[in-house]
Predict the structure.
Amino acid sequence: MITAGLLRQAPRFTLALLTLPVLAGLAGTVIPAFSNDANGLRALVQWPGLPRAASLSLVTGVGSAALSLAITLLLVASLWGTRAFAAVQHLLAPLLSVPHAAAALGLAFLIAPSGWIARVLSPWATGWTQPPDLLLLNDPFGLALTLGLVAKEVPFLFLMALAALPQTDAARRMQVAQSLGAGRIASFAVAVLPSLYKQLRLPVYAVLAYSMTAVEMAMILGPTRPYTLSAQVVIWMADPLLTGRATAAAGAILQVALVLAALGLWHLAERLARSALIGLAQRGLRAQAADGPARLIAALLGGLITGGLFFGLAGLALWSFAGLWTFPDALPASLTLNTWTRAAPDLAQTAGLTLTIAALATTLALALVLACLEAEHRFALAPGAGALWVLYLPLLVPQVAFLPGLQVAALRAGLAGHWLAVAAAHLVFVLPYVFLSLAPAYRAWDARIAVAGAALAASPARVFWRLRLPMLLRPVLTASAVGLAVSVGQYLPTLLVGGGRVETLTTEAVALASGGNRRLIGAYALLQMLLPALGFAVALLLPAWAHRHRRGMAVAP
Amino acid sequence: MSGPLQLQDLRVTRDGQAIVALDLTVAPGEVLTIMGPSGAGKSTALAAILGTLAPAFHLSGRIVLAGREITALPPHLRRVGLLFQDDVLFPHLSVGGNLAFALPPTVRGRAERRARIDAALCAAGLSGFADRDPATLSGGQRARVALMRTLLAAPGALLLDEPFSRLDADLRAQIRGFVLERIRREGLPAILVTHDADDARGAAGRVVSPLGLPLMP
């Protein structure tokens, strides 16, 4: 039984839980860079790859964030309210739960010189009978990496935009603007975008920070000579010599500075875009001719992203069942369960541990989020804008900048390498997503139900357990599935806090990526996708079954 | 243990302005009507008695139910029942589940609880409806289930928040008669809030404004 006093402290406790590890980790990361006469900083400056690695981080990060946002807005602007929009929505939503590593591996298989696209086109169109010696993957400009980041971030931004749209009164504003003669794109840009972007800002910042610092995607798709800065920091960190750690710390500081600079630039661009929009509106922007091409481009790009991810992942799945599959055959000569039977013991053990960590992190996150939201309801607390920033803190601060510090703390406490420590680290990343997923439904719950319950002499606890929680079964399970997916996909926290001794499906898949055993990679990546997918299936089917005789609980179509 | 509901110099203010000012006693079986246009403080008066007043409001005076002061108690300990404008049945529970939720835990034993629920359904002319989905009931049926649910919780007083305004005209008189008859039979002090003169006349009791002025319906 939770006392009211404890419940009232839940929001404060949760905010501390998000802030303290990030700040303590940052401090723990930064200090080694300056110790020993700032050896680390000196080593970093002397590294010849530094300018290139730093600019790669900046260009791929800002480029993919800008592209992701542009594609998302184009999709929303040109398709919102149409039948195609519902189709795009249903295609993109499941892609959100695909871990970054699996998505990167799938794309890698698709576009590699020996990948599916080359196979389908060979030899009849290309004349290749051997995989060509082209640098399509890991290209020095980070194009493959940018593509991978865009494919993974568009579904996220699209769903965040979808959640924010109802609060912008978009339907009526579009109607008014269009009745005044503006085209669809112009109406959206002038009448909806300003209030939509206000709510998209934090997710966009999170995408920007993530794209600049993604490690597993950079290792699979990104350039290798040099790596992007974040990937190089992780490599230095694995250096057995102590000098590597100091260089890594210095690199992490630079990475934070780069992210801050990019956020500053982005903010500047926001202001420029804002005054440009106002100017266009005042000049009476109509741009009806833009609607046709915009719709075409949106459909094309949306199709490319979903198609790329889908076929990449399907290719991975196929590899795990492939017998002989030589270049340039488009399909394997035979199918076999050999890969799965041979790897079954390892796969089962790794999947079990992955699921255990995810279940613990998600359960804790769910309990804390429910406590926060229930405290907000019972004590009529109004969360400020600052609380939202804190919620996004673990998503905004580069992982390479605070996880090393946490790793050192875990080592000191003798917890490093234990799966419980890994689950605790996952909690910091799982909690924001669970909160963002559950809060809208929780706050939208009909409060008269609680009054009706109290008028029937039911205590607040009874109202929570017997009325609110069962009525919110669907959003609670969906939030849990989101949490599960986030935990399963975590790479760097698992690698660092686990000290390389806690092996999950994600760390194994990334470790295998450089080896080139596509059958085994396929098996790990398929399981990596399957666990979150199972979570979402349960979130969909269990409420439907539990409420099968309750028409009042049906989802609105 | 039914007794009168006393509002002793009950005042609710917001930003220093009086919204509710009532000093009266509702006898067991009496239905007092608070009438006024929307926004006149009727709902505020109900929230004050129910204990769900928002923090922006300031309350003074005493609320005494059957000799027990309930002014500072949380809503679920006041023993004040409520009928909403809509029925607010719990959509995830069956009709019987809705009634069972209201039945006090002091009624023990599965058979005894089931018998009490069946009896309540029978009294509402809804025998055999226990396993039904509330979403499949008609408006009149839902209104009767909502009333029986409120009564099963054994409240010491009843608040009616325009409970008939959503019903069709012919159904309205019938449900109103049913509700008022049950209140008199149970001997509960009741307060009806409405902007409808017909409802006020049907209640056949005193009619006041939220600021306590006597009105003629």
Observations:
- Chain A has a mean pLDDT of 85.
- DSSP finds 22 helices and no strands in chain A.
- The domain at 1-46+341-546 of chain A is CATH 1.10.3720.10 (MetI-like fold).
- Chain A touches chain B through 25 residues (CB under 8 Å).
